[in-house]
Amino acid sequence: MKSLLPQSLPSLPRRLLRSRRVNLLFKVSALILILSILEAWYHSQISLSIPRPAEHHDLDEPFSIGCQDVSKLVTQPREKAVLVMLARNSELKEAKKTMENVEDRFNKWFNYPVLFLNNEPWGEDFVNALKGTVSGDAKFEVIPDGIWGPTAGLTEEVVGEYLKQQELEGVYKGEIEGYHHMCRFYSGEFYNLEALKEYKYYWRLEPGVSYGCSLTYDPFVEMARRGKKYGYTVALWEEPNTCPSLFRTVDEFRTQNNIPMHPNWKAMIDAETSWLLKPAPIRWLLGKIVQREHYNIKGEKWNLCHYWSNFEIADLDFFRGKQYQKLFKHLDKTGGFYRERWGDAPVHSLAVHLLLEAKELHHFSDVGYYHEPFWQCPQNAKGKQLSSNVMIGEARKGMSEERDGGFGCRCECGLGKKGDWRMRNNRGICLEKVQQPAAWNRASWWDLRRRRWPYTVGFDSEGNKAG
Hints:
This protein is α/β, with parallel strands linked by helices. The chain contains 16 helices and 14 strands. The strands form four sheets. Strands 3-2-1-4-9-6-10 form a seven-stranded mixed sheet. Belongs to the glycosyltransferase 15 family.
C-alpha cells in the first residue's frame, strides 16, 4: 500500500510549512516597508511642516512704500543706534565710497554715528578721509587684544594645521587666518565691545558695498516700533564644505537646552529632498552612526540657507543676551571656527531661527543692496517718489521706472551689472524657505514648480502684492 503513494508525499508538510514561513516573511517585510514609507512621509510632510501664522496674516511687510517726507521724520526722536564698519587701512578707497553712498542715500538726513573698527592701529590717512564723509560722529576704535584671535586653548601650530588642511580641501577662504578671526569675532566677541555698550541697534556696513535706493525713514525706529530684532536683505545657500558640523552643533545646543522644534527652526531643515529614502532607521544611521555632514543627531538635514550678514540691522540686546552668548560659547569651545571655517552669517542665521520668533525677523525688501556678486533692488512705487520734495532732492537720472506694486524709493537698479534691471540676481529659493513661518500668503505649488519664488513675504516674483 505504501508503495502505491507518491514518493514526494511525505515531504508535503515540510514544503507547506516552508511556504507559509516565506509567505509570512514576505508579508512582514511588506508591512515594515509600508510603515517605513508612511513614517518617512509623515515625518517630512507633517512633523516638519510649517503652519501658516496663527495671526492669519503676514508677519512681515516693507517698512515703507515709496519715499517718505524726510522733513517730518528728522525732528522725531532717534534710537540709540550706530552704523558699524570693520575695515583695514588698505581699504580706504572702498570704505570711503561706501560711506559716501550711505550718507547720500540715508545718513545725511538722520546723522547717526559711525563706528569704524580695525584689528590694527588706524592710519592717519584713513581717519582723515572717513571723518570728512560722515555727517554724524565718526569713531575709530582698535579691537582690544584677546578678542581678535583664535579660540582659547588653540595653539598657533594647531590652527596652522587646520588652515593647511582646508587649503588642500579647497574650502573657500579656509586658508586665511584673518578670515577665521573675523568670522569668530562677528559671531560673538563683537557684541561685547565696550564701544557698543551705549547702543541698542547696529547697522553693519562693509567696504565696497553700495545701496541703490534712498531710505527716507529711520529703520531703527521702525525696528523698535514693530518689535523686530534682526533685519536682512539677501538669503543664499552656504558653501557646504565650510561648516560640515555647524548644524549638528547648534542642534545639540537646542536639545540640551530643551528648545522646542518651533516653526522658525523647522524653516532651516530640508524637508523636501528624497523624503521617501529617509525612514527612521536611515535617518538614525545618517545622524547618529555615520554623522553625515549637515545632519543633526536625528538625521534631519540643514537646507544650508542663511542670511548674508554683510548687511544686517539688528538688536544688540538680543546678541549680547544670555541665550545667544551661551550658544556662542557652546560653538566656540568646539573649535569649529578654526577646525572648519564657520562663518558668522550661518551662525547668526541659525541662531535667530532658533532663538527668535518669525515675527521678530524683517526682510529689508525696500533696500537696494549690492555686495559683489549679488544684489536685490525693488521696483519704485508708482506715484510715491516725491519728485518735488526739497529735502530728498530732484529725481536722479537712471532711476528705475515706477510701477504698480513697487515699493522702492528713488531706486536705481542694475547695481551689479549695468543694464541688468532684475530685482535680484540670486534665486529666491532660500528666501522663500526662511520666510515661510512669517508668510500667510504663500506661493502656490505651481509657482514654485515654475521657479516663481516670491520677492518677499506677501509679494509675488514680480513684486506685486499677493492675496
